[in-house]
Design goal:
The chain is an alpha/beta fold. It contains 22 helices and 11 strands. It folds into 2 domains: 158 residues, no CATH class; 298 residues, Alpha/Beta hydrolase fold, catalytic domain (Rossmann fold). A hairpin with a 5-residue loop joins strand 4 and strand 5. One of its GO terms (biological process) is phosphatidylserine catabolic process.
């Protein structure tokens, strides 16, 4: 034990000596060293073609810390922690002597990680300059904050551009408090161990790491080529939300220039490479954001956090960017239809709501992918922690609405085993969303005619056009059916693509308000 303590003391002393020597050689006063030690990673200066390349010493430190964080995450997670504990116990590594040996390697890895990163940063004049700007922006003026916006970096220790104001009048789905104590216990474990990661894979550390380089390149393109304005928002749940505002194209028509599209991404989508590009191509002003736990946004994507993030974005759009609600279009893709619909329900004067590849309810999709004997646990887990009943949220919204279904959908279908495209398409949850919208908005039209809607949903657009021409006659029932199918045409459009294909700009058509068909 004494030899271990001496070894660790020697390593720590060696690192401290290296730090002092390198700091002295580079003229870094002791007062600035804490910022360099504790500062965020610097990725690049916006506008430059190449990312910052850390020196070898810092790179070794970064890799050491990444390894250490990965090991700690796996060993302490609810999903893998029990397995790691069982393996350590079976190998006798929980005994005091063996545990001391494990602790030794952890401490050594930490010393090399933090020490290497610290020394490497001290040797980098660009990083030292960045930290000076970063420190000054914490307590400085608006100009100091704008100077910090020149850099792309890990969002640590930044002052938000806007802090959301709590609104107690916001509407939410009622809480679910059913299920036995045992079911609730299993559901709670399942959600926190692996359920959240399955529902929102974009919040997983490994995916964020794999996507980080691509996201940084796209972020730089927004700022350098699209005049993008990066903003940091503080939600009412305390999460820091990374967002990007792309001003409207000056060559676009007046209607598009005064319209803002707020984009809500899917469960593995990021504003840098997601649905924001579709309205950008059309010249609209666009405000995209990353959900909590995605890329540089912190927190976890539980519904409360996701909705708080969306509300912070909406408040920023109206209070800071000065857009009227009547000039805001809400655009949600996949699970992003949940916050987009909720914003529409709470801000009913928005110009329109467009839902692309969105479902009516998460529960049927979750149950279809789990063994039947677990359905009771799945129901409690979804209803209590991820109750995404979009169709119930839409009951609170009466404004212009457009639903886009993907003809080759592979994610939102219940029957993913069938080889028949028509059969698979019939189980697309977007179909159910349309029918529930019709029952809510036009109950007199769809009454006793739901099979006709199912028949219409199986048709191609060309077949629908022919059918509409053939079915018009003077009878009251035929007239009601024609009105019902006209309502279907108004709310619903098919896009010949799979779930992840970017939406063609030609399909991004803002719907108008309509009640009579």
């Amino acid at each position: 034990m004494c030899s271990l303590v001496l070894l660790l003391f020697f390593l720590a002393a060696l690192v401290v000596k290296c730090v002092l020597v390198v700091g002295y050689q580079n003229g870094v006063p002791l007062s600035e060293m804490w910022g360099i030690f504790n500062g965020p990673q610097l990725y690049r200066i916006f506008g430059l073609s190449n990312e910052r390349a850390p020196n070898t010493v810092e790179t070794i430190g970064n890799y050491s810390l990444s390894t250490l964080k990965g090991l700690l995450y796996v060993s302490t997670s609810l999903a893998f922690g029990p397995v790691v504990l069982y393996i350590l116990y079976n190998r006798g590594m929980l005994a005091p002597i063996a545990a001391t040996g494990v602790l030794k390697y952890i401490v050594i890895l930490g010393i090399f990680g933090y020490g290497g990163r610290f020394v490497g940063r001290l040797m980098d004049s660009d990083y030292r300059q960045f930290v000076g700007v970063w420190e000054k922006a914490k307590i400085g003026t608006a100009e100091d904050k704008q100077s910090l916006k020149r850099y792309d970096f890990e969002l640590i220790g930044v002052t938000p551009d806007y802090r959301a104001v709590e609104n107690r009048d916001l509407w939410y789905l009622p809480a679910y408090n059913e299920g036995s104590a045992f079911s609730n216990l299993l559901a709670t474990y399942a959600v926190h161990a692996f359920g959240r990661h399955m529902i929102y894979p974009g919040s997983m550390a490994i995916l964020n790491t794999l996507m980080s380089s691509t996201l940084r390149v796209a972020r730089n393109n927004f700022v350098a080529s699209k005049n993008g304005q990066r903003v940091w928002l503080n939600s009412t749940t305390g999460d820091l939300i990374d967002a990007m505002f792309i001003p409207p194209d000056s060559s676009a028509d007046a209607e598009r220039q005064r319209t803002l599209v707020i984009c809500c991404e899917g469960n593995a989508g990021f504003y840098e490479i997601g649905i924001t590009n579709t309205p950008i191509q059309l010249g609209y002003g666009v405000l995209g954001f990353n959900q909590p736990g995605f890329a540089e946004s912190n927190g976890l994507p539980f519904p409360t956090n996701v909705l708080a993030a969306a509300e912070a974005v909406f408040q920023y759009a109206t209070n800071v960017l000065q857009y009227r609600e009547e000039d805001i279009v809400l655009f949600g893709w996949s699970i992003g239809g949940f916050p987009a619909s909720w914003l529409a329900a709470n801000h009913p004067n928005v110009k329109a709501l467009i839902l692309d590849a969105t479902f009516d309810d998460l529960l049927p999709l979750a149950e279809s992918r789990m063994p039947s004997f677990l359905h009771s646990i799945v129901e409690v887990a979804i209803r209590k922690y991820f109750n995404l009943e979009i169709h119930r949220i839409l009951e609170q919204y009466r404004g212009p609405l457009r639903l886009i279904r993907r003809l080759h959908e592979e994610i939102l279908i219940i029957d993913d085993q069938s080889m028949n495209d028509v059969q698979k398409r019939a189980t697309n949850r977007a179909n159910y969303l349309l029918k529930k919208v019709l029952y809510d908005r036009h109950p007199d039209l769809i009454k006793d005619l739901e099979p006709q809607v199912d028949r219409w949903l199986k048709m191609t657009p060309a077949q629908r056009a022919m059918s509409a021409g053939l079915e018009r006659n003077a009878t009251e029932s035929a007239n009601r059916l024609a009105k019902l199918l006209s309502a279907c045409d108004h709310y619903f459009v098919d896009f010949d693509a799979n779930h992840v294909t970017p939406l063609d700009p030609g399909y991004f058509n803002i719907p108008m308000a309509r009640t009579n068909f």
